[in-house]
Design brief:
Layout lengths: L1 H26 L3 H8 L43 H7 L8 H10 L8 H13 L7 E2 L2 E2 L1 H10 L23 H24 L4 H4 L3 E2 L7 H10 L3 H6 L6 H14 L28 H7 L12 H13 L10 H8 L5 H17 L7 E6 L4 E6 L2 E11 L7 E11 L3 E2 L2 H14 L3 H4 L3 E4 L5 E5 L10 E4 L8 E2 L13 E3 L3 E3 L2 H12 L7 H10 L3 E14 L3 E3 L5 E3 L6 H10 L29 E3 L9 H4 L3 H7 L17
Parallel strand pairs: 3-7, 4-15, 6-13, 12-14
Antiparallel strand pairs: 1-2, 4-5, 5-6, 6-14, 7-11, 7-15, 8-10, 9-10, 11-12, 15-18, 16-17
Length: 652
């Protein structure tokens, strides 16, 4: 018994010790518990109890929360095209019978010149529940009548009214006929707007060397303008170019068609030779001669010293004996090729067409070169601020038509001869006389691949002269100085390989830097000092200046006189034939106008407005435009070898 009590005592003691140990352990603070106790707990949310509907699994997955990670590369949002807008438009069921027929007819492409125009028309009509635009209560509305009346006058814009057939609303009596008339009217006006804004002919069809970007017509924007217009005639007229060059030609076209003779059409009759003598010489041709030569009118018919001097100046320009005598040869040169009235109209219309190829915004300030006139003019606020003579490409190597921006000017440029000139012109000369190129200061080197590189360092004999004006373009042409100053005295100055040589490059540099940079210190004196230093330096423009190279065989001069120039490249005949052809290719918006392949930028570094020689890659060099057939196009023959990276290669 005593032993049993001892066993119970031992067991009780063991249990007591074990329980005491557990209590002690629980009483000791745990490190994690201390940290957790320091973190404040959130307030208890007032959440309603779950219902059976809350626990039913939904088929639609929940929208991602803001915390959900976005896709690594989500595509950027882009504006829908007219075709996509037309497809995304909700199904509209028009109740008006005419509107219902318009909806049905739009499903076919019987009316519009391109898919883009059709898609724009479909989106336009769908947005108005297919309500007709040009008829109200079964008859042509005032908008339609005004548009029809305007289309009958577009010959004043150099367009043919016969190309813009309008529907006969009077004969349209059924919903089918009214719907078709409305769509045909819309299609006709889109065609007119495209012709007025971009021209009837795609320029690349008639000019191989062209890079005009233009302002391609947006049919959706055109339809919005026509719909919102309060003056439909003014809206339609606004699709034509608004620059003063185009407007002046338009006025002369109206004059010629009205039977008035422009000043440029003045012809000097044949007669006896007029020359200064001891006594006054009177002749009935004197007033017309004064006007032809741009002299102030006088109330007499005296052939005086001022008139004789003007005749002598004209003779020298046209490579005649400059003696001031009005000879038969001088009269013929003054009159130029005899053109009939109809042909003069055709030439004006061709030139108006070319103006449509350019952007309607020529720029606040710009340089414009006219190839047939061999002149370059700089404009600011639509006024000529400077003018000079130029030499352009010969007919076999024509200067291209383009619009670009002048980005920098190079003082004391190096001429790296293009490979085509190296292989087609210079190597044959070297085969006959190995020292010929060295006599002209040309350096010949041989590359590892066996190709030949020829360059000419800066200097008075450099083919580029002392200044080069750079407007990078796919044709690798530019404007530059020249050591051949004697060519500027000639009346016809088409001698280059496509580039344009400037008669007074120092003044041109001063004018262009005043427009393209904020640095007003680039005066002619400073530029001459930079030339004298001999260092090849780039003056970079902070504001690139547009450069337009044009082909104007008819234009109105500063005195308001209509002038005609010789078609040196034969462009007029080709364009006139295309305009009169029934199978001509229109300048449709789905037929791209000739554009530049690339838009290179200068990689040259700048220091105080200039770049000292040392940069190997320069905008306008072969590395900026790729290599290939442009050399072949300008100089003919086989494709030249690849351009050597890092070298400048320019035409001249």
């Amino acid at each position: 018994m005593a032993k049993l009590r001892l066993d119970y005592l031992l067991i009780s003691t063991a249990i007591t010790v074990a329980l005491s140990t557990v209590s002690a352990v629980r009483a000791a603070p745990n490190a994690f518990d201390v940290i957790a106790a320091a973190i404040p707990l959130p307030e208890t949310a007032d959440v309603k109890p779950l219902t059976p509907a809350d626990v039913v699994q939904k088929r639609t997955p929940p929208a991602p929360s803001a915390a959900t990670a976005a896709p690594a590369a989500a595509p950027a949002a882009t504006e829908a095209t007219p075709e996509q807008k037309a497809q995304d438009t909700a199904v509209v069921v028009p109740t008006d019978p005419v509107a219902a027929k318009i909806k049905d007819l739009l499903a076919s492409n019987r009316f519009f010149a391109s898919r883009k125009e059709r898609a724009a028309a479909e989106a336009f009509y769908s947005a108005r529940i297919y309500a007709p635009l040009w008829e109200t209560a079964g008859a042509a509305n005032d908008r339609a009548k005004a548009a029809i009346a305007y289309l009958g006058t577009v010959d004043s814009e150099g367009l043919d009214p016969a190309e813009y057939a309008v529907p006969n609303f009077k004969n349209a009596t059924s919903p089918d006929q009214l719907a078709e008339a409305d769509l045909r009217m819309t299609a006709t006006l889109l065609t007119y707007a495209r012709h007025a804004q971009n021209g009837r002919i795609n320029p690349s069809r008639v000019v191989p060397e062209v890079a005009y970007t233009g302002d391609p017509l947006d049919p959706a924007d055109a339809l919005a303008k026509l719909s919102d217009s309060k003056d439909i005639a003014a809206t339609l007229a606004d699709f034509n170019p608004s620059n003063p060059h185009y407007r002046a030609l338009k006025a002369k076209l109206v004059e010629l068609r009205g039977g008035k003779n422009g000043a440029g059409a003045i012809r000097i009759p044949s007669g006896p030779v007029l020359k200064l003598g001891k006594s006054e010489l009177h002749d009935a041709r004197v007033p017309a001669l004064r006007e032809k030569l741009g002299l102030a009118a006088k109330n007499d018919e005296v052939y005086d010293r001022a008139l004789a001097d003007a005749v002598a100046a004209f003779q020298k320009e046209h490579e005649l004996r400059g003696n001031g005598e009005l000879t038969t040869a001088t009269v013929d040169a003054l009159n130029g090729p005899r053109r009939d009235h109809v042909h003069e109209v055709d030439i004006i219309i061709a030139n108006m067409e070319r103006w449509r190829w350019l952007s309607h915004d020529l720029g606040k300030a710009y340089s414009m070169l006219n190839i047939p006139d061999y002149t370059l003019q700089v404009y600011k606020d639509q006024a000529v601020i400077w003018k000079t003579r130029v030499v352009v490409g010969k007919p076999s190597k024509p200067t291209p038509l383009l619009t670009e921006t002048m980005k920098f000017i190079t003082i004391n440029p190096t001429w790296n001869v293009p490979p085509s000139i190296v292989y087609h012109e210079y190597l044959p000369v070297m085969a006959q006389d190995p020292t010929a190129l060295a006599r002209y200061g040309l350096h010949v080197s041989y590359n590892r691949d066996g190709s030949v590189h020829i360059s000419q360092p800066p200097g008075d004999r450099n083919a580029l002269g002392r200044i080069r004006f750079n407007f990078p373009n796919k044709f690798l042409v530019y404007q530059h100085d020249t050591p051949d100053k004697n060519l500027f005295a000639l009346a016809k100055r088409a001698f280059s390989h496509g580039c344009q040589r400037v008669q007074d490059p120092v003044k041109y540099a001063e004018v262009m830097t005043s427009l393209g940079t904020t640095d007003t210190s680039y005066t002619q004196d400073r530029i001459r000092h930079m030339i004298a230093s001999g260092a090849e330096t780039d003056i970079k423009f902070t504001t690139p200046i547009p450069v337009h190279i044009t082909y104007q065989t008819a234009f109105v001069d500063d005195a308001g006189k209509l002038q005609f120039r010789e078609d040196v490249y034969g462009r007029d005949a080709t364009l006139i034939a295309a305009l009169k052809s029934s199978e001509r290719a229109p300048a449709r918006e789905d037929v791209p106008m000739a554009r530049q392949d690339q838009q290179p930028t200068s990689t040259a570094s700048s220091s105080s407005g200039g770049r000292q020689r040392g940069s190997s890659r320069v905008a306008g060099g072969p590395q900026a435009y790729g290599n290939g057939g442009l050399f072949q196009m300008f100089f003919s023959g086989a494709r030249p070898p690849a351009a050597i990276p890092g070298r400048r290669a320019y035409y001249r």
